[in-house]
From TrEMBL:
Classification via SUPFAM superfamilies: HAD-like
GO molecular function, one term: hydrolase activity
InterPro entries: HAD-like_sf, HAD-SF_hydro_IA, HAD_sf, S-2-haloacid_dehalogenase
Natural source organism: Noviluteimonas lactosilytica
Pfam families per the UniProt record, alphabetical: Hydrolase (PF00702)
Name the UniProt record assigns to this protein: HAD family hydrolase
Keywords: Hydrolase
Domain of life per record: Bacteria
């Protein structure tokens, strides 16, 4: 396959780490914080009710669909106001939530693969989520992180991919976007002119099938270290061609 990859944009949730365990924990960690600090809010808005309130807030602010952190804070502010708690607690409540959101457990192959890939080409994180690579401790492997909240729109909008390419200083056809989501990552990046790699990990895609005929990923692997292997082999091939 004739791919001349000079940089990589990389999804985070469900590509470097599974998000489901995080999503299962964060709501309960937040509720425990509210029990200790805003008991009226915790009583009126247990986990399920807080989730329903968040859906209401999301529907009221469709222009903020790309900004999960702001929507979470707006939800907390509404809940505290309705329960009669002081809204000064919004920021510390969010901090309790956000600290847990950034407590991730990477897939077993992810960190070593990141190190190997970063030794070959620059990597930029492109994510719809609100993970913070600096808090997580992985920022040193990345040229930068571009989140949907920072950019102003989310994947699959082509603008976020193109903005990342501009910051990398590379034309889209020389940038490989790597991610797990078929529509947000692969189809979105392909429409923006990038080359694409679908990471279909077994915990999310036990029997992967590709649903589209009009667009297909340039590469597809079960793990990130398989992509690192491909880059190693691809780089060696190009080096031999240059010598020849």
């Amino acid at each position: 396959m004739n791919l001349h990859i000079r940089a990589i944009t990389l999804d985070l949730d469900d590509t470097l780490w599974p998000f489901a365990p995080i999503g299962a924990r964060v709501e309960h960690v937040l509720h425990d914080w509210l029990l200790a600090n805003c008991p009226r809010t915790a009583e009126r808005f247990p986990v399920d009710e807080m989730r329903r309130l968040r859906e209401v807030i999301n529907a009221e602010h469709p222009h903020l669909a790309h900004d999960f952190s702001t929507l979470r804070k707006l939800t907390l502010a509404r809940a505290m106001d309705l329960a009669g708690d002081d809204p000064m607690h919004v920021e510390p409540a969010f901090e309790a939530f956000y600290a847990e959101r950034n407590r991730v457990e990477c897939y077993p192959d992810a960190i070593e693969a990141l190190q190997r890939i970063a030794a070959r080409v620059p990597i930029a994180a492109v994510t719809n989520g609100n993970a913070d690579l600096r808090r997580i401790g992985l920022h040193s492997h990345f040229a930068f992180q571009l989140g949907a909240a920072q950019h102003g729109s989310s994947k699959p909008d082509p603008g976020i991919f193109q903005a990342a390419c501009e910051r990398l200083g590379e034309a889209p056809q020389h940038v490989l976007h790597v991610g797990d989501d078929i529509d947000l990552d692969v189809v979105g990046a392909a429409r923006a002119g990038l080359r694409t790699c679908w990471i279909h990990r077994d915990d999310l895609h036990p029997q992967p099938t590709w649903p589209y005929q009009h667009v297909r990923p340039d590469l597809a692997f079960h793990t990130l270290d398989a992509l690192a292997d491909w880059l190693d082999a691809h780089s060696q091939t190009h080096a031999q061609d240059n010598v020849a």
